[in-house]
């Protein structure tokens, strides 16, 4: 059975999963990895979810305040052996639930065009493509999404 831990960015399992994520992104992003990584620091993230099965960390994700009404989804990752089992959707759902509990109205996020699995995940979970925001404006390898929370 999959369980979820609400924690923060000091959680060692989260840190370990993010290392795996960063290694994967370094390959996918190539020369652009340094640009993206500057926006993906994990220090001081207060809202992290780690998914476990039998005490083994499988997946993670985080949210951080984007503006007064929105949380930004960050650092979504599922270990390769646990993909295509709905784990990422469950982590995302837990993050959305937490954001709603904190009275935020929507979630926003950025992902890369070289991450088709992530794009499919967000579309499957009701996210809509929006104009690239903030530091991603004009970056053609970025795609931004939002989802209104109920």
Layout of secondary structure:
Layout: E1 2-7, H1 12-29, H2 33-37, E2 47-53, E3 56-67, E4 70-78, H3 87-101, E5 106-112, H4 116-124, E6 128-130, E7 142-148
Parallel strand pairs: 4-5
Antiparallel strand pairs: 1-2, 2-3, 3-4, 5-7, 6-7
The beta-strand count equals 7
| Helix content class | 25-40%
Strand order of the largest sheet: 1-2-3-4-5-7-6
**Largest sheet geometry:** 7 strands, mixed
**Unreliable stretches:** none
* β-sheet strand percentage: 25-35%
- The first-to-last residue Cα distance is 27 Å
- Return the structural class: alpha+beta
Evaluate the radius of gyration.
Answer: 14 Å
Count every helix, treating DSSP H or I runs of 4 or more residues as helices: 4
Order of SSEs, N→C? EHHEEEHEHEE
Mean pLDDT across the residues is: 92
Q: What spatial form do the alpha-carbon principal axes imply? A: globular
Q: Can you walk through the features of this model?
A:
The structure is a single chain. Strands 1-2-3-4-5-7-6 form a seven-stranded mixed β-sheet, sandwiched between helices. Helices cover 31% and strands 34% of the residues. The longest helix is centred in the N-terminal third of the chain and has 18 residues, at 12-29. The protein has helices at 12-29, 33-37, 87-101, 116-124, and strands spanning 2-7, 47-53, 56-67, 70-78, 106-112, 128-130, 142-148. It is globular and about 45 Å long. The protein has 150 residues and is of the alpha+beta class.
